[in-house]
Amino acid sequence: MPEPLLSLSGVHTHVGPYHILQGVDLAVPGGGVTALLGRNGAGKTSTLRTVMGLWRASAGAIRFAGLEITKAATPDLARGGIAYVPETMSVFSDLTVRENLVLAARAGPPDAARLDWILTLFPALRTFWSVAAGVLSGGQKQMLSVARAIVEPRQLILVDEPTKGLAPAVVANMLAAFAELKRTETTILLVEQNFHFARSLADTVAVMDNGRVVHAGRMAALAADDGLQRRLLGLSLDSHQ
Amino acid sequence: MSASLDTTLKPVVPPPDWLPLALAPVLALAALPLVGSPATWATLTLAGLAMGMMIFIMASGLTLIFGLMDVLNFAHAAFITLGAYSATLLLGPRSDWLGADSLVLNAGALLVMVALASAVAAAAGFAFERVIVRPVYGRHLHQILVTVGGLIVAQQLITAAWGPVQVALPLPASFRGIVLVGEVAVERYRLVAVAIGLVVFAAMLLVLNRTRIGLLIRAGVENPEMVEALGYRIRRLFVGVFVAGSALAGLGGVMWGFYREALTPGMGLELTVLVFIVVIIGGLGSVGGCFVGALLVALTANYAGFLAPKLALGSNIVLMVAILLWRSRGLYPVAKR
Ligand SMILES: Nc1ncnc2c1ncn2[C@@H]1O[C@H](COP(=O)(O)OP(=O)(O)OP(=O)(O)O)[C@@H](O)[C@H]1O
Ligand SMILES: [Mg+2]
């Protein structure tokens, strides 16, 4: 079996006095979508932040593309091929849509064909190309945040709840865009509370609780097993439909 | 119509916020009847504009340093003083240029001294960032302690090198004296200071709005973590801004020195009170706000100095309080994550 593109083994993360991740084991195979599920406060965002080097793991090891990255600095991880779409979207509100994307293309001006492809995925961004990102709607900001992560080809993108608070029509656009992105080389680690969204995209799944991964396997298997869903996802399943 | 929803949903683009820009003209017009004589008013106003430009130059670096890295740098005052004093190093060697009856040589001398002041302040800023500031990122109390400490040490060193008494910094001959515009006596150097201030402001706006580095600075002020997640080393950016900010402090310092034609080891500290007021009024991290704030503070200081000299500094505190009551985060608050 080939080594996963990203793997965490026994990762612990402390933030101040809080012991947040308590031994996370997670494998993200290359080339597909892995969903990371779990109820509020389970540690999903913390896992992504730790992978991205925004928080430092206090124990355990993280490997990416065959390299140990546990102690790597955030900019080096980005340069090494990992992109991050945070839960808060974090678009630069004072900068226009164009300027946000110009900054995201670190190696130089964005590739025209690729940019065109992205703007086809998210037509709203083309419409509001010269508008300050701060005045966009929530859905448009989310699109920009995703677009920023993929404006340059990346091996792995970490996406944190891209459907949070979005209208159903925008969720549909997002789903179409991720389905399209999935057809490229990019590997996606997708944190979601919306089980339907996650199920439509993901090949593999991991479920977290209390700072640990409590279940990992094929998405198809979880999708077919109502009892397992209820046990693992509990209320969060119903409350997000 | 589903997926097109957010394509057609028009963002509500707020109109540009011009209101703060009107404040300085309004203040100037309001002062006219109080001052009485239009000629005196014109002189005070020009003095205020010139002083405002110098304060802006000193404050602009500080506001970016605070905005970008959340660092409270009280030692900024030391770079102001150091810049001004280092210009005196050229008084001996370049006295021929300074005294010459030639605008070109005079301007050359001014330029060389200004460049030296900025360069020395920049170098000092670079060293200061490495040795003093770097270990205390994210800890405000420590920042206050070490930067105030750094300021005291720097003042002592300047006193040791140049002595505790006033040092003269004479203006080159061509920039002294006045030109008469109608009945209004206009000091030449004030015009020069306004011109330099406008050039610096324009250059900063150009860099911040039209270059990649400028975009990074603006993005970094809002969300440094996300800038790193895009692959940029924010530390390098910060060192660059710290050095540029220190250079601007030195530039402002030497300009102020020429304005007064005299330097004291405490000059930076005295100016820093106004500089901090400007940074707060403008909105931490906002260069545009800093510019408007500097003009307001300097105009207020000049009018108040004429109308009620005893209230000059107090008037600026009143100004600050009034503005913060109106906009609690300053004239142009900067979005923060
Ligand atoms: N900055 C922080 N400081 C201290 N504790 C934190 C911080 N951020 C998160 N936590 C705690 O860590 C735990 C995991 O939080 P995390 O944000 O990773 O959960 P999550 O699975 O992403 O939840 P959600 O679905 O609500 O986004 C929670 O108990 C949370 O309260
Ligand atoms: Mg979360």
The number of domains of chain B: 1
The share of residues in helices of chain A is 25-40%
Based on CA inertia axes, which overall geometry of chain B fits? globular
Provide the residue-averaged pLDDT of chain B: 90
Backbone structural class of chain B: mainly alpha
What is the name of the CATH topology of the largest domain in chain A?
A: Rossmann fold
Rounded to an integer in angstroms, the radius of gyration calculated over CA atoms of chain B is: 21 Å
Q: Beta-strand percentage of chain A?
A: 25-35%
Spatial arrangement of strands, main beta sheet of chain B: 1-4
Stretches of chain B where pLDDT is under 50 for at least 5 consecutive residues are none
Poorly predicted sequence stretches spanning 5 or more consecutive residues of chain A: 235-241
Plain-language structure description:
The complex is a heterodimer of chains A (241) and B (337). Chain A has 10 helices and 10 strands. Chain A is of the alpha/beta class. Chain A has a 6-stranded mixed sheet, sandwiched between helices. A 4-stranded antiparallel sheet of chain A has the order 2-1-4-5, covered by helices on one side. The longest helix of chain A has 15 residues. Chain B has 337 residues and is mostly helical. Chain B is built from 14 helices and 4 strands. In chain B, a hairpin with a 2-residue loop joins strand 2 and strand 3. In chain B, helix 3 packs across helix 12, helix 4 packs across helix 11 and helix 8 crosses helix 9. Chain B is globular, with a radius of gyration of 21 Å. The structure holds adenosine-5'-triphosphate and magnesium ion (MG). Magnesium ion binds next to helix 1 of chain A. Magnesium ion (MG) binds next to helix 1 of chain A.
